[in-house]
Amino acid sequence: MLEKYLRILIICVCVFGLLGLLLITSFYNARKITVNELLLNPPNESIYLVDGRIKNPQIKSNTLFFELCDFSCIACVYFNPSFGLEGGKEISVKAKYTTFNNKPELIVYSFEER
Amino acid sequence: MLLLEVLCGVALGFVLGLIPNIHINLIGYVFSLFGVFVFFKENFYFFFSLCVSQTLTSIIPSFIFYTQTQDVLFSPFLGQTPATPSETKALLLLSFLSFLLGGIFSVLFLPFFYLLFLLFSDFYFLIFLILLLSLIFLIFQEKENSFRLIVLAIIIFSGTLGVFTLKFNFFFKEPLIPCVFGLFALPSILLILFSGEKEGNFKSKVVQEIMCFKQIVYLSFLGTLFSSTIAIFPSLSPGLAMTFANTFKENKSSKETVVLFSSILSSVLLIYFFLAVVFNKSRIGFISFLQINNILPKVVFADVLQLAFVFLIVVGLTVTLAYFCLDSIFIELNKLDKKTVLFFVLMFSLFIVFVFSGMGGLFLVVVSGGIGFLPIVYNKNRLALMSYLILPTILFFV
C-alpha cells in the first residue's frame, strides 16, 4: 500500500518538476539589450534579447558561427542550424551571455526578426 | 618527474576511489573549486593517472557498499545476491585481471580506433541513427509492452530534463552536477540509507561458477571492442557498451558480467584520453576540465606512445596496489558504518551542488532524483536514464 503511494509521489515529482521547467522556460521574459550595453558587463550566464547586425556567418561541424554587431561585435554560436544566415541582416536573438576561451560569447537559442 | 607525477596521481586516485559513490567528474568540480587545475597546469600525467586510478579503484567500494538494483552503472553486477566477503574478494580479483587485459587490448586497439574515429566521427546522420537505435534498443530489451511503455516513460522524462537543462538552459548554473547526481547516485544512496538490511547478513551462492583464462581473455577482448566503438558516439556510456556486448552472450553469469564491465571500464579510459589529446573531443567532465584549463598536451606520434605506455603503468600500479591492500581495505571499510559513510557522501555532494549550482541546483536534484527512482521502483534497467544525455545529443544531430 505504502509502495503505491510512493510511486504516485515519485511520478508527481517528475511530472510537476518537468512541467515547471517547461512553463518557466516558455514564458521567460528576457531583458532587451544592445551589444554595446551587453559588453559593458562581464559575462553572467544570463539570458538576454540582443539586437544587432549579422556579420561573418559560417557553418562548421553542424554549428553556425557569426558575429552580432552594432558599434561593437560579439561572437555568437547557434547549434544545429536548419537554415543559413545572410550577413548584414538586422535581427534579435534570445541568447545566453557566457564565455568561451575567456572571451565573451552568446549561445543563441532562437532568432527573432526585427 | 614523469614517474613522480604518475606515482602521486595513482596514490591520490587510489585513496579517492575508495570513497563510495564519488564519480571522477565530481572530483573535477572539487579540484576546480580549489583551483587545483590552475596550480598544476604542467602536470597532465598527474591528472591522467589520478583519473585512471580513481575510476578503477572505485569498483572496490561499489562491491562493498552494494545495494540490489538493476543498475549497470554504479553496481554493475546485475541480479546478483550480496556475496560473502570471500566471494566478493574473488570477484574483485577477477575484476583486477580484466582491468589489466582491457588495458593491454585498448593499447593494441588504438590504431583501429583512430581509423574508426576518422571514418565515422563527421558522419552526423550515422551518429544520430546510432543514438536513436540505442534508445529503441533499451525499450525493446523488455519482453512485454507494458514494461516497454515504462522504459519509454523513463526515457522521455530523463530526456526532457536533459533538453531543459543542457539544450535550453535559461536559469541553472552547471546543471550537469545536480542532474547526474540526482539521476544516478542519489537513488542508490537513499535506497541504502533507508533500507532495513542488517550489515553482515550475507547470502552465499549455491552454485560456484568457474571461468577459464581463455574465457576471461575472450570477454575482455569483446569488452574492449565495444568500448572502442561506443566511444566514437557522444553521450553513450560504458554501461551501454556492456549491454550491447551482452547481446552476444545470452546466458551470462555474474562473473562474466564482472569481466566484461571491468575490461570496458579500463579500456574506455585510454580511449577517452586518446580522443581528447588527438582529436580534442571530450567525453567526460573531468577531461573537459583539463581541456578548459589547457592542461591537455599537444601531441605527436611519440606522445601517443608515451600516453599508452603510461596508461599501462598506471593500470598495473593501481591493480598491484589494490591487490596487496585488498585485505586491509576490506577490514577497514567493513569497520565503518555504511549508512554513516553514505550520509556524509550525500551531504558532501549536496554541498558541492549548492556551491556550483545554488538553490536551483537543489531543485534539479529533487526532480532528477524523482526520475532516477523510476527504474528502481519499476525494476527496470537504469541505463534508460542515459537518455538525459542522449536525447539532447540526438537533437543536436537531427
Q: What this model shows, in words?
A:
The complex is a heterodimer of chains A (114) and B (398). Chain A is an alpha/beta fold and 114 residues long. Chain A has one domain: Nucleic acid-binding proteins (OB fold (Dihydrolipoamide Acetyltransferase, E2P)). Helices cover 27% and strands 47% of the residues of chain A. In chain A, strand 5 (90-100) and strand 6 (103-113) form a beta hairpin. Chain B has one domain. In chain B, helix 6 (85-120) packs across helix 10, helix 6 runs antiparallel to helix 14 and helix 12 (254-279) crosses helix 14 (301-335). Mean pLDDT of chain B is 83; it is low at 68-81 and 199-206.
Major sheet characteristics of chain A: 5 strands, mixed, barrel
**How many structural domains can be distinguished in the coordinates of chain A?**
1
> What is Rg of chain B?
20 Å
Q: What integer is the average pLDDT of chain A? A: 86
Uncertain residue segments of chain B: 68-81, 199-206
Query: What share of residues are in beta strands of chain A?
Result: over 45%
State the end-to-end CA separation of chain B: 47 Å
> Judging from the principal axes of the Cα atoms, what is the shape of chain A?
elongated
